[in-house]
């Protein structure tokens, strides 16, 4: 078989490629978000040309930065144009926005003379997720479980929106620190009308469940004195209202009533309510009516906006003057929460995920929430409740994204540029137009970056005990930190090992104690693609033959879902055919045995599923998992010798760790060693460019 150690990718590529992506795309993207900056009269405009930005050479190199306790960084210069439409002047100038810390060849930053590493954070990817919660209502009943369904919109920046179905089968829109709103109000407020709603949804009557849904009254009379649960009170109230409308007060069932009309208009509900309140009834019945709080009916966007804003502000009395103000304020509130690109951002991955899940074809530039997203999410939620569609597994790696150093830096640059924009706008208000250079200051951007490197828990001092400690630190994945989970509230589901972790996240290497399962390590062959998904390589198998000449096929957790994957330690024939008979494979998250013709892919190596530190443990398969975990962690604590020695029992990964960490002198090209001394090594090569 081929020796896989020669195919192991560079261990530092994760950090270096991420920073390269930030310089090529991330920086330009953030500057474009703030383009152009105008004053309130629109007669002054500042425009950046981010595609042509320049980085000046750093003042100190990486060694000098350590010696003089400085930051290894370079100035960011952007061509800027100011247009004054009053005086018809256009001024063009290069402007320095701030200093951007540079990543060294070894994949870390030098800030104030100290080596710092930005840890990769693994979080729930932006998009739409359907979940199911089971409640144990009463253990004595035959059906103890009650299922409740919800759909959550998760954004990169902005408010999380949750569409939920409660115990009484009512549909609600929920936001943090806001009272829950009937979903029909929310859909109308987003710009839809009743006609579109009732034509688009398969069960439109479900939206009316928040009002008195007396189109589906059961064929019996309920006495509220003996029934305490809210559902029976609702049924009683519905019957009561209908009987009031039909002027029938006898204890007959509704179907026995002669003048019974099954179709009652929803908008007649208030007339019913008034009639029922005027009716003289017992004190018990009145108290039940008071307890039951009815939602108002809205059939237009303006009505819905007015009701939403009155509910948010907890206003009970509505006047004609109030109504107009409330409609405007409601519009502002909805726009600010979900439609303003500055306060709400799904991100590219979020929009891709929504388009895929809801079968939409909205442009990828549409990063805010639209009415179609919410409408189709409602339809999907109703189908999930019926059992026609499945719920999402939050712990599956296809629903998780890795925020690499580039993403975290980009977010911080965005904060710095937002502060810069505010200072520019404040200077616009001055009557005399100042000169171009006085608009700009390096403080906002430098301050934001200094804040990030100094206080953010994802920016840490590099672990420099030995080369392995460095590599492990740079390949670490954490679910903690801003936007992640808290170690105190994290459940066993989050900490556990998921089938999709195979070849992506190491099942062995994790700390002991509070952080167990929350801080993980990337496996030896894994890589993170530009979308933030972890991919692992496989060989393609065609009719039982392993196609090694075709190279590696990198698969994400989603691509791998329906594949049949064989283990990497199977003995192949001279012509690369898999052995005959039943082979152990992974299929749909389960281990089974299939003939070789059914195999789609084969693992690249036996060390594919473990991390760099774990791959240094010899005969790992014979160890207890807990002891292997301790061994992998303790190797990082070993103090190196002045004269390094070769391992007595090695696994073959040791030289790669030493060379990739940057602690070993590496020649630019291979060749013949002609001379060695304590000061220099001469290598003779056939390539002239070196």
Automatic annotation (TrEMBL):
GO terms for molecular function: DNA binding; DNA-directed RNA polymerase activity; ribonucleoside binding. Residues 145-242, 289-403, 460-528 form the RNA polymerase Rpb2 domain. GO terms for biological process: DNA-templated transcription. The keyword Transport does not apply. Residues 538-605 form the DNA-directed RNA polymerase beta subunit external domain. Its main location: plastid. It holds the Pfam family RNA_pol_Rpb2_45. It catalyses: RNA(n) + a ribonucleoside 5'-triphosphate = RNA(n+1) + diphosphate. It is found in: Plastid, Chloroplast. GO terms for cellular component: chloroplast; DNA-directed RNA polymerase complex. Keywords: Chloroplast, DNA-directed RNA polymerase, Nucleotidyltransferase, Plastid, Transcription, Transferase. Belongs to the RNA polymerase beta chain family. DNA-dependent RNA polymerase catalyzes the transcription of DNA into RNA using the four ribonucleoside triphosphates as substrates. This is DNA-directed RNA polymerase. The gene is rpoBa.
């Amino acid at each position: 078989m081929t020796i896989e150690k020669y195919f192991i990718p560079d261990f530092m590529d994760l950090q270096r490629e991420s920073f390269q992506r930030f310089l090529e795309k991330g920086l330009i993207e953030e500057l474009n978000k703030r383009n152009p900056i105008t004053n309130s009269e629109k007669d002054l405009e500042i425009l950046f040309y981010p595609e042509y930005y320049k980085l000046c050479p750093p003042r100190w190199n990486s060694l000098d930065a350590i010696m003089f306790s400085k930051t290894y960084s370079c100035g960011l210069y952007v061509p800027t144009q100011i247009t004054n439409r009053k005086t018809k002047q256009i001024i063009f100038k290069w402007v320095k926005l701030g200093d951007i810390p540079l990543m060294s060849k070894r994949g870390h930053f030098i800030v104030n003379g100290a080596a710092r590493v930005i840890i990769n954070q693994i979080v729930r990817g932006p998009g739409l997720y359907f979940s199911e919660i089971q409640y144990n209502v009463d253990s004595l009943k035959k059906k103890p479980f009650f299922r409740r369904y919800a759909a959550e919109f998760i954004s990169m920046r902005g408010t999380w929106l949750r569409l939920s179905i409660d115990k009484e089968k009512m549909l609600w829109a929920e936001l943090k620190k806001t009272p829950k709103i009937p979903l029909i109000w929310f859909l109308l407020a987003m710009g839809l009308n009743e006609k579109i709603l009732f034509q688009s949804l398969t069960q439109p009557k479900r939206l009316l469940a928040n009002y008195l849904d007396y189109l589906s009254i059961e064929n019996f009379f309920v006495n509220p004195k003996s029934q305490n649960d809210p559902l029976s009170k609702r049924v009683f109230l519905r019957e009561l209202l209908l009987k009031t409308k039909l002027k029938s007060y006898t204890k007959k069932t509704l179907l026995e009533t002669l003048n019974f009309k099954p179709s009652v208009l929803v908008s007649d509900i208030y007339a019913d309510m008034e009639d029922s309140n005027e009716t003289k009834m017992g004190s018990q019945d009145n108290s039940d009516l008071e307890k039951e709080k009815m939602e108002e009916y809205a059939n237009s966007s303006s009505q819905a906006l007015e009701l939403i804003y009155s509910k948010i502000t907890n206003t009970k009395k509505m006047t004609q003057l109030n109504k107009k103000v409330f409609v405007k304020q409601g519009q502002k509130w909805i726009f600010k929460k979900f439609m303003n690109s500055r306060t709400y951002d799904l991100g590219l991955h979020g929009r891709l995920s929504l388009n895929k899940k809801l079968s939409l074809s909205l442009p990828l530039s549409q990063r805010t929430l639209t009415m179609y997203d919410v409408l189709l999410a409602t339809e999907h939620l109703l189908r999930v409740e019926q059992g026609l569609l499945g719920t999402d597994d939050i712990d599956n790696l296809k629903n998780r994204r890795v925020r690499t150093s580039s993403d975290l830096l980009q977010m911080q640059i965005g904060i710095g540029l937002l502060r810069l924009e505010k200072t520019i706008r404040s200077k616009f208000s001055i009557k005399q137009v100042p000169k171009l250079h006085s608009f700009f200051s390096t403080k906002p951007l430098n301050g934001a970056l200094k804040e990030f490197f100094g206080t953010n828990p994802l920016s840490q001092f590099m672990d420099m005990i030995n080369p392995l400690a460095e590599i492990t630190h740079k390949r670490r994945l954490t679910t903690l930190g801003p936007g992640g989970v808290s170690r105190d509230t994290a459940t066993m589901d989050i900490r556990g090992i998921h089938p999709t972790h195979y070849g992506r996240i190491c099942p062995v290497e994790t700390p002991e104690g509070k952080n167990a399962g929350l801080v993980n390590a990337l496996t030896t062959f894994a890589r993170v693609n530009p979308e933030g998904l972890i991919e692992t390589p496989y060989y393609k198998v065609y009719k039982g033959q392993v196609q090694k000449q075709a190279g590696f096929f990198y698969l994400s957790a989603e691509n791998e879902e329906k594949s049949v994957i064989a283990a990497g330690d199977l003995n192949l024939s001279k012509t690369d055919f898999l052995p005959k008979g039943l082979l152990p494979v992974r299929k749909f998250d389960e281990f089974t045995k299939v003939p070789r013709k059914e195999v789609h892919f084969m693992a690249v190596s036996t060390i594919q599923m473990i991390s760099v530190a774990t791959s240094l443990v010899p005969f790992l398969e014979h160890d207890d998992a807990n002891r292997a975990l301790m061994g992998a962690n303790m190797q990082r604590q070993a103090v190196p010798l002045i004269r390094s020695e070769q391992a007595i029992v090695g696994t073959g990964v040791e030289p790669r760790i030493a060379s990739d960490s940057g602690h070993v002198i590496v020649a630019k090209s291979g060749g013949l060693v002609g001379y060695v001394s304590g000061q220099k090594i001469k290598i003779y090569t056939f390539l002239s460019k070196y």
